[in-house]
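[Discussion] Sanity-checking designs against the backbone

I'm trying to build intuition for which residues belong where. Below is a structure token string of 241 positions. I'd appreciate it if someone posts a full sequence so I can compare it with mine line by line.
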């Protein structure tokens, strides 16, 4: 599979320091422990705070949470209860809803960003997700381990935005502090080889368990008109609830 290491924003003749990192992998497992922001550690649910394990028995979560069975195939707008362990003493539990999957192009959505020759053989996708913290403690600063399933068995990581905000689709990181019961709107960006079109969004549980997937119609995004861009509200992942 093709790996794109970086993407930079162009300002005149100067490349800015805005960098997006993308990894591509097959049969991957969650590595969210490296993604917490240093100044805002994830809290999550600790093992001593929980009272029961979900029937799926792949992670211990609060008794009010029933994790969705690994291998479940959902449609768009359906919700799954998922969990992962960003570090040994914490479990993050979320209700995830994949609302929409958009296929776009570099011409339509990446104006002002440096597109390398390597990237031109790939297709960008935006995946819009609603995430609710169903744990019993705040969490924050984590890139949710939601992947793009392509080619039947290949899982592709989302872009991880670092220095610059990609306004058309800001990324899949949770807000710095998402309180228990609160909801955030996320937008994941994936670059897939043209020979492997997007099949499903996939949450990959721990170990060798089958991913939970969302499958549905992939819509084509349309480039907004200039006057609409001016009126559009700057996107983000502000929490609500």
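Best answer:
Here's mine. Compare freely.
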């Amino acid at each position: 599979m093709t790996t794109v290491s970086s993407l930079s924003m162009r300002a005149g003749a100067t490349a800015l320091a805005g960098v997006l990192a993308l990894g591509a992998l097959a049969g991957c497992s969650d590595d969210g422990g490296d993604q917490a922001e240093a100044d805002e550690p994830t809290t999550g649910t600790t093992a001593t705070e929980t009272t029961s394990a979900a029937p799926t028995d792949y992670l211990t979560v609060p008794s009010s949470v029933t994790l969705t069975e690994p291998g479940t195939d959902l449609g768009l707008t359906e919700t799954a209860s998922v969990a992962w362990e960003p570090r040994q003493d914490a479990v993050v539990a979320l209700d995830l809803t994949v609302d929409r999957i958009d296929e776009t192009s570099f011409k339509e959505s990446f104006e002002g960003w440096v597109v390398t020759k390597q990237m031109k053989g790939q297709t960008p996708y935006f995946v819009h997700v609603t995430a609710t913290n169903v744990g019993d403690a705040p969490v924050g600063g984590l890139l949710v381990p939601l992947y793009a399933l392509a080619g039947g068995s290949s899982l592709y990581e989302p872009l991880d935005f670092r220095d610059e905000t990609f306004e058309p689709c800001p990324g899949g990181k949770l807000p710095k502090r998402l309180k228990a019961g609160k909801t955030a709107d996320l937008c994941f960006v994936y670059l897939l080889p043209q020979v492997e079109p997007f099949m499903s969004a996939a949450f990959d549980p721990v170990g060798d368990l089958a991913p939970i997937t969302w499958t549905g119609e992939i819509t084509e995004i349309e480039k907004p008109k200039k006057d609409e861009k001016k009126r559009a509200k700057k996107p983000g992942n502000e929490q609500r609830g």
